[in-house]
UniProtKB/TrEMBL annotation:
Keyword Hydrolase set for record: no
Positions of transmembrane segments: 58-81, 102-120, 132-158, 170-192
Protein name per Swiss-Prot or TrEMBL: YqaA family protein
Keywords: Membrane, Transmembrane, Transmembrane helix
Source organism of this protein record: Kiloniella antarctica
Amino acid sequence: MFRSLYNWTMSLAAHPHALLALALIAFIESSVFPIPPDILIIPMVLAARDQAWKIALIATIASVLGGMFGYGIGALLFDSIGQPIIQFYGKTEYLDSFRSKYNDWGAWIVFIAGVTPFPYKVITIASGFFELNFAIFSISSVGARGLRFFIVAGLLWQFGQPIRIFIEKYLNILATIFCILLVGGFVALKYLL
């Protein structure tokens, strides 16, 4: 199963509209979509290493714009859109206690969520809802998402072929580890917030 999904993703990564698909995924992941854009960044860079920096830049710009959209959901449409998303992640009861953390640590919360597997969309919506300064939110988002995507692209650019061979050799194990980390991120979100 993972092999056919991997082959499909690699063929999508080489498609002429792959950058547009990456931008769309990076945008919606920052506000509503649960799957991170790394799923597409990795095969895209492996398929076209000479495009690594362009791929990282597009992912960063689209992700930050999506984060700003998520901020807008939190600020303007929390009751109708934001709250159901927060409820989906099981964090409604923590909003009041989280507000005090935002007053002191907002920039760091955004930065950490933007770099880690933590669901970034929860933080973008919460930032708008808690009225985190938009400039601080934007700067933290650019720094975090840029750091994350450029490190991934840089590592793949530098070590691309050996990484590709490693991924193809251990695809099932790596896919299992990824699923465990993804589920673990949601579990951590449930118990940490």
